[in-house]
Amino acid sequence: MPVTPEQQAEIDALRSAPRSTLRAVSEGMEKHLYSIYPVLDHGFVRVVDYMGDDAAICQAARVSYGKGTKSVQNDEGLIRYLMRHWHSTPFEMCEIKLHVKLPVFVARQWIRHRTANVNEYSARYSILDREFYIPAPEQLAAQSVINNQGRGQALTGDEAARVLEILKSDSGRAYDNYEAMISQDGQEGLARELARMNLPANIYTQWYWKVDLHNLFHFLRLRADSHAQYEIRVYAEEICKLVADWVPFAYKAFEDYRMGGETLSAAALDCVRRMLKGEDVTQENSGMSAREWRELQEVLG
Fold it and tell me: Binding positions for dUMP (predicted)?
């Protein structure tokens, strides 16, 4: 179950009582407030609150640029200029607060982005639900032979079935023991803060995550990338949809210059210039390592 009955009741109550406001609002984001967007088998993302819109980015930029800027640049052009030239502070004027339910091992990756405010569900005070992330069969894969962090070919047949059964049975057994340890039926019961250490990393946790748009774009550039781990990438992809409706000009610039663009090293740029002059450039005469050369070839297609 993505949300508890209590959480759903709270969401329904908030949605049923809209309030007028004098602050700037993003019509695209308003439709997402208090809506649940499922991710993985038990997870979700929902927008709790936000501040700012495309206009807020431009407003902040024009304060620093001085009077008269608006007469020569429209909002979209200004935002694209800011993104193109790596001006970050105007994007920090927008913030978003998300409620996310996610597996613990995904949360441990996510929390490495230390530029957000986080408040996580506490297993010291509360009992975690019996909910575990169990991958879909097509997501079970062998270790990649070229990337120590990644996956290779999908597992099939008996091996895939055996792995799924191990994941399900180990998760259930760990939770059974967790319940047995904290139970006060005929015993004192182990403290929750100790019992939780026996739970597997695929159990679900929840948190509120508040971040400004500049740092959110950095998170999305890394985690919505095709090379990111699938389990965090699907969360990032869902957030991308929200951001595209919230700040459409900024998100389009982000897609063009960050997600769809490439940053080349001085050596790589020199190779491209030599290629354009008609030179036969190889890895051996490029001055680049084998891995750098392979990555450049991928960029150039």
Answer: 109-112, 120-124, 196, 223
- Is 170 annotated to bind a ligand? Reply is no
Residue 214 assigned to a binding site: yes
Residue 112 and residue 244 in one domain: yes
Catalytic residues: 223
At which residue do the structure tokens 């993985």 appear? 40
- Within this chain, do residues 242 and 129 fall inside the same structural domain, yes or no? yes
Do you know the residue count of the chain? 301
Burial of 47 (0-12, 13-18, 19+ CB in 10 A): buried
Rg (CA), the chain: 24
Q: How many domains does the chain have?
A: 3
Q: Is 258 annotated as a binding residue?
A: no
Which of residues 201, 218, 249 is at a domain's end? Answer: 201
**Domain span at 171:** 135-201
